[in-house]
Structure prediction request, 520 residues.
Amino acid sequence: MTTTVIEESFRPGELEVRPDGTGNLLGSRCRSCGAHFFPTREACAGCLSQDLDAVKFSTEGVLYTYSVVRQSTPAFEVPYAIGYVDFPEGVRIMGQIAGLEFDEITIGMPMTLSLEPFGENEEGDPLTGYRFRPAEVTND
Amino acid sequence: MTDVHVVGVGMTRFGKHPDKDATDLGAAALLEAVADAGIDPRIIESAYVGHVFQGMVTGQRILAQVGLAGLPLSNVENACSSGATAIREASLAIRAGENDVVVAVGTEHLTSKFSGALTPDPSDPEAAVGATMPGVYAMRATRYMEDHGMTREQLALIPVKNKANAARNPLAHFRKEITVADVLESRPIADPLNLHDCSPVTDGAAAVIVMSDRAAKKYANGRGVRLAASALRSGSVDVTPTSMTFEPLTWATAQDAYERAGIGPDEVDFAEVHDCFSIAEVLRVEGLGLFEQGSYPWAVERGEADINGRLPINPSGGLIGKGHPLGGTGVAQVVELVRQLRGEAGDRQIEGAKVGLAHCRGGKAVGIEGAACTVQILIR
Prediction:
């Protein structure tokens, strides 16, 4: 489904890309109260502690909601689906949805993080970003 | 501490103004507000000017155009709440005792800056993966339908209502009534939202002159309307993900405003709320406590939000019908409140209205529920 990608992360502070093509979304975890944040924060919004760890989020979550965008900026070819996925650490992260017909997308679906070519840098070199794909393929 | 009174209001026609810029529009609105107040403009002591995409010192350009250069002036940016924030700043200058007569202007020439879908700032992680403002609201609509069983047809009744109101507003961007079928058949923007569910790209400006008790006594001639509250908050970071079909930011800002005004939501006679999209009106009025959570689509169906209904919402046409020139929007809402409360709203007059509420919300930043929110309450 996904080819091996080793290009630079499209946003290195938010997405770690490893040479084997795997990666994680990145954020912060409060060492004081345990709250998680995406993207990284300097202080915890819950308890104001500044003692935060860098954290890699799980790659599997649940689709909270979605839409199919049919008008966008020139940077994105329409139509494309976007959605918010709730991850077990307690963060909700937006991304594009791939691997499904638009009318197959359903609230509550298990989704998985997929690292994929996503745009290019100022030199025109391809970058690696992420999309969400269905975590299980239904065979019917 | 003195109360704050809105004594003069002015507003350009909202729509496309290819022959003008944000300065021209702001100057025209300001001059109309001065004429409406019936004052010598030289008594104005300071100015706050809200705009988003118009560049540096647009406020100074406006004042220079009308002969008022030299006043203390702040340009105010708070996304779609910029104009409303300018009014709040003006009201604070009065309450602090620093000034007796202050002008707040909101202006935007959006057609020369944008076409199509507005997006968050490109630095935002959500913009980087393709978030558009219609897309974000569309996702909230999808979830509201899931949570509360709202139908697509019910959602379409909101633009139908607001464009019917706009048809009665000579300053509105759109002057044509539409049907549910028109909404459902209009161009898809971000499912389930279509073109008619979205506020348009609009040019326009509005201005209000606010005064202290002392100045209002001298200059208002009985036409002043009391600005009983002007509340502002910014969105907080979610510690855990919360429902996207309720707005804690709108709720908290409204509580500040109700407390300051000494009223509850049940005493509000009508409201102008930030209906940047059809679903937004649902989320606003429920967040303001004007309607129960999960109830508004059914209330609209029963006509409760119509101009002659129990609690008229967006009698001006709202952002969807009247138009949405970002910086101009929050000031224009207060212009509508004043005209309604003075009984000067013509074909869209709400009978006997005494308490009006204006709500703005603007901006998107990752991880926070909303960027800037204002709630203003005017009482006649």
